């Protein structure tokens, strides 16, 4: 099986389930190291093959797909600025279809978006339709599964819903709250993706998939409040909120960036309900109800057991085109009697609900400033409270290097006039104990970047010194608890 998007939300769950069923899986990834860091890749290293490359490279794609019985296409470009994602998605789908033809792949399976056909589709859903046609343009049969809102821990639509309901007891919304939708649990989406592969009758067909209930978004919001054990939310629909205004509001209230929120917000105006029962007839299955799906997702969130998240598919930061020249460095170190595993445990607990060990109000203020200027801010949190892996998003950072239990590098994804990294190295100290080295590096972009570095330099003494002391206290507290 060939899987694209294996570092993303759906692909990151589909690949391990295929492996668990005994299939051999070949994955295309922009960063092979990021994919190898997934626990399932290490667990099934005898059955998984990772090909590093770009989905826009037709020749490499064709070579990677040769010998595969099915190719799963799980690529979307909504994080591209503005509506550029629509043109990019079309180009990528055409390339993928041609590559599949050259490789002799007998079939493509694509997860698209549910919605009425004809005029009036949002840009987002129109793009999904275009991708469907582009994938089959070279003549390879395509099975299209169309889904509406996917309810699962870490999904973009679920996170929008959860954060809005949690944080806003009163919501002023566009009129789309009365639009009908047929949400589906992520585990049911995965069932259909795998069942379609083993059901020959699905070849070349477009199949709508959805849960057992058709609800308005207003009712879904109220059910989420009940699942969260919150008071009933007051929702006031108004005709003046445009998708752009809605996406900016979602950007401020939830962890999702406006560039991702806007296509989703636009799509909410379209009725998204299954038009027939083909999915249940061809691939019989009991789907979870909306409340069951919510309860399952919330249980995962509360247990810190989120398998994949919408932020997983972010591009691994690399050297920009203007790389080189001055790199500012702020290096600090401390020696502690705590063990290296205890120090490493404190380091890898950074961020999320745990915070940054000192002056958290300054970090929150920086997160608010970043959010207001279009960055991710701190609300993105982290996938798991006690586990980090390569490629994970961590507040406004991304894990770009991790060598347990010695080295962690975080690269900033906040809005900055340059590239910033924060690294931690855990070493055995010659004088006994453990040395923790924390290094902040900043490669400025022009004069503005240089001015930025010197403007925040006075705060480093407060923030970084406090963080280093907090890390040591946490590690030593664990040491004392074990001794006690």
Using brief descriptors, characterize the structure shown:
single chain; 484 residues; alpha/beta; Rossmann fold; Alpha-D-Glucose-1,6-Bisphosphate, Chain A, domain 4; 2 domains; seven-stranded parallel beta sheet; six-stranded antiparallel beta sheet; 16 helices; disordered C terminus
**Total domains, how many?**
2
Oligomer: single chain
Share of helical residues = 40-55%
Query: Superfamily at the CATH H level of the largest domain?
Result: NAD(P)-binding Rossmann-like Domain
- Can you identify the CATH class of the largest domain? Alpha Beta
Biggest sheet: strand arrangement: 3-2-1-4-5-6-11
The chain-level structural class is: alpha/beta
**CATH architectural name of the largest domain:** 3-Layer(aba) Sandwich
Computed Rg: 23 Å
* Low-pLDDT residue spans: 316-325, 480-484
* Strand percentage: 15-25%
**How many helical stretches?**
16
Gap between N and C termini = 52 Å
Summarize model confidence as the mean pLDDT: 85
Tell me, what's the shape?
A: globular
Number of DSSP strand runs: 19
Largest sheet: 7 strands, parallel
Q: Return the CATH topology of the largest domain.
A: Rossmann fold
